[in-house]
Design goal:
Length: 187
């Protein structure tokens, strides 16, 4: 038995892996891996939801009667379900995502009024909230397992500003198209 292995009460070996000068149990390593997956999914979903709901791509596609709303809901729903599977959100979240996309379709299919209401009812942003909540739950689980908050923050906060950077990039492109020169901010 190596010095990094321990023996449990039942006589079976429980390996402990070395992670940057810190000993981690397999359970701790698993929760950190889940946190990484949850973070990456949450960031991607937030960018897509921002493009669809905040910038109105969902509404623009929805201007095509019935087919536009249907295509938007199906494509967004399938994407969100794939990300939910990647992030291990669970069956209840799958059902919520489907329900939100069905409601988004039902609202958007109503002529004229539906397009305006579709902008207000932001199904994709609501789904993005589920991904963020999942990440917070995994962070709490990691804390309860004794993983230092600083280590959790390195994983969960790295790239936290990705959605804001995407919004800024879109804003700069919009200003450039409008003929306005973007201003540089000091770092």
């Amino acid at each position: 038995m190596s010095p990094l292995d321990t023996q449990g009460d039942s006589g079976e070996e429980n390996s402990i892996e070395r992670d940057k000068d810190t000993l981690r149990t397999p359970e701790q390593l698993e929760v950190l891996e889940r946190l990484k997956k949850a973070k990456s999914s949450a960031e991607r979903v937030d960018v897509v939801a921002t493009a669809l709901d905040t910038f109105g791509l969902d509404v623009i596609v929805g201007l095509i009667p019935v087919e536009g709303d249907g295509a938007s809901s199906i494509i967004a729903g399938l994407y969100l379900l794939a990300e939910a599977k990647h992030a291990d959100l669970g069956a209840m979240s799958y059902l919520k995502i489907i329900a939100l996309q069905v409601a988004d379709f039902a609202i958007g299919v109503v002529p004229v009024v539906g397009d305006a209401a579709d902008y207000v009812f932001q199904a994709n942003k609501m789904s993005a909230g589920m991904f963020a909540k999942n990440m917070e739950q995994i962070k709490q689980e990691a804390i309860k397992m004794g993983i230092p908050p600083e280590e959790i923050a390195k994983i969960s906060d790295d790239g936290k500003n990705l959605p804001q950077l995407a919004k800024q990039a879109i804003s700069v492109v919009g200003k450039a198209k409008a003929g306005k020169a973007p201003t540089a901010k000091a770092a």
